[in-house]
Write a structure and sequence with these properties.
Hypothetical Cytosolic Protein, Chain: A, alpha+beta, 3 helices, two-stranded antiparallel ribbon, about 20% helix, 5 strands
């Protein structure tokens, strides 16, 4: 089955939607959308720790892309629930 292409916000890699992690703003803040079914605007990231670290550094860009009106929801980027389960699956290539 062919999946739509999405772009990683950390490194700019274009990949299948199923190969990337989707992050969504919900009522509780930023969450991982493991099934890709949560409502709202999503941002995609590779399953590499280095890409996610770039997103943390580019917090304002991520908030703008997700059209987040409340900066408090973007405050805890380093501790997104469910992120440990999906990051680190693919080792960073040096």
């Amino acid at each position: 089955m062919a999946y739509p292409l999405r772009t990683c916000l950390g490194c700019g890699l274009k990949a299948n939607k199923a190969d990337l992690v989707r992050l969504v703003i919900s009522a509780g803040g930023l969450v991982v959308d493991a099934k890709g079914m949560l409502p709202g605007r999503g941002a995609y990231c590779c399953r590499k720790e280095s890409c996610y670290q770039r997103l943390i550094k580019q917090r304002k860009r991520l908030a703008w892309l997700l059209r987040c009106q409340d900066p408090e929801k973007m405050g805890a980027l380093a501790c997104v629930p469910g992120l440990d389960a999906v990051l680190g699956v693919q080792a960073d290539v040096v």
